[in-house]
């Protein structure tokens, strides 16, 4: 039973563009675009687009390009990226492209940036793992300086260039365009120091742990030197991403998600483990990738009780209430993780919109 009070919430949908066995690239794109248009029709406030490289875990290599397309085929819903990896793109190029997207979208985009977590991508692009943190910091310095100071040069460890001015200029302040993506390793305080909203993605943890992390963020904001109106603006744009699936019953939500999640879990694990030698790449990642491991019933029941939000409408509303009471105003459910069938994903989106959202948006 949903109880308590708090600020009204907004809800988005996450679109991962995953390519599990049995799907084609064209099918994945067609299904995700159908979901995006359906999200707008159902009244979701935002849709979120990914960027990854080289693997079937996600087959969207450019979130900004994809966002430009989605802006063109929608009319109201906000379009977000989750996330653009600043370690893998030149910050000046990003500053130009992001500002242009802000302009042509009429300010309808939210661009979440981060430094990535998939080790093989760094290797393939020639980025040392221990360099991603300082590269991200320099890139963010460059973007913020370029957008606010006019012609701006930089002389750092990873980037160096003479004073340049990027076009077009952004139509909004940086903290109204950018969101700082945070996973399990980035201190939340860093987002506050940068004056950027928080994008919190810790979907494997219990919802209570996510809520506690967000409460720490709220407390840190109020303890910071930021003015009350600045704190309010950051809280109004900060979001939390969660795994989700809604079905008429809890058992069905868990059953239809189990095999797809096992594939997702295996692919993700392979991309987060130490990278093999170059001679072993093809064998390890493509010819004979790690096979999904069946999750036993006891573990699955434990995982889906409070971390993987695969449940019925009432249970989902209870989970959302936990986040609301922690001060979360924007939640992005990732429905269909691992390749849940399209009809089940669309039904989940509808059940969430009809039976969960009204409890927090009216």
TrEMBL record:
Transmembrane segments: none annotated. Keywords: Monooxygenase, Oxidoreductase. GO terms for cellular component: cytosol. GO terms for molecular function: monooxygenase activity; oxidoreductase activity, acting on paired donors, with incorporation or reduction of molecular oxygen. Residues 9-329 form the Luciferase-like domain. Coiled coil: none annotated. This is LLM class flavin-dependent oxidoreductase.
């Amino acid at each position: 039973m949903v109880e308590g009070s708090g600020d009204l919430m907004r809800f988005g949908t996450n679109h991962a563009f995953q390519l599990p066995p049995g799907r084609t690239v064209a099918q994945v794109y067609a299904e995700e675009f159908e979901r995006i248009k359906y999200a707008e029709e159902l009244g979701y406030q935002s849709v979120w687009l990914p960027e990854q490289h080289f693997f079937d875990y996600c087959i969207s290599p450019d979130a900004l390009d994809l966002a430009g397309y989605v802006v063109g085929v929608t009319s109201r819903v906000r379009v977000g990226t989750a996330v653009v990896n600043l370690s893998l793109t030149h910050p000046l190029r990003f500053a130009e492209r992001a500002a242009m997207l802000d302009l042509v979208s009429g300010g309808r985009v939210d661009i979440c940036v981060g430094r990535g977590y998939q080790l093989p991508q760094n290797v393939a692009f020639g980025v040392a793992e221990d360099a991603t943190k300082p590269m991200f910091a320099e890139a963010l310095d460059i973007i913020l300086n370029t957008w606010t100071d006019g012609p701006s040069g930089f002389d750092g460890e990873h980037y160096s260039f003479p004073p340049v001015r990027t076009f077009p200029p952004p139509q909004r302040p940086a903290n109204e365009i950018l969101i700082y993506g945070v996973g399990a390793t980035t201190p939340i305080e860093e987002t506050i120091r940068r004056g950027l909203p928080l994008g919190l993605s810790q979907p494997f943890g219990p919802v209570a742990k996510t809520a506690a992390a967000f409460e720490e963020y709220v407390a840190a904001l109020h303890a910071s030197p930021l003015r009350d109106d600045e704190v309010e603006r950051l809280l109004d744009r900060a979001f939390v991403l969660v795994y989700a699936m809604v079905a008429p019953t809890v058992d069905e939500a868990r059953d239809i998600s189990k095999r797809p999640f096992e594939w997702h879990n295996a692919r993700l694990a392979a991309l987060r483990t130490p990278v093999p030698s170059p001679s072993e790449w093809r064998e390890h990642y493509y010819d004979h990738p790690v096979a999904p491991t069946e999750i036993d019933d006891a573990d699955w029941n434990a995982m889906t009780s409070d971390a993987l939000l695969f449940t019925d409408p009432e249970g989902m509303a209870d989970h959302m209430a936990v986040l609301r009471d922690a001060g979360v105003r924007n939640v992005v459910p990732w429905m269909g993780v691992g390749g849940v069938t399209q009809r089940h994903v669309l039904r989940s989106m509808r059940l969430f919109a009809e039976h969960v959202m009204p409890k927090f948006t009216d």
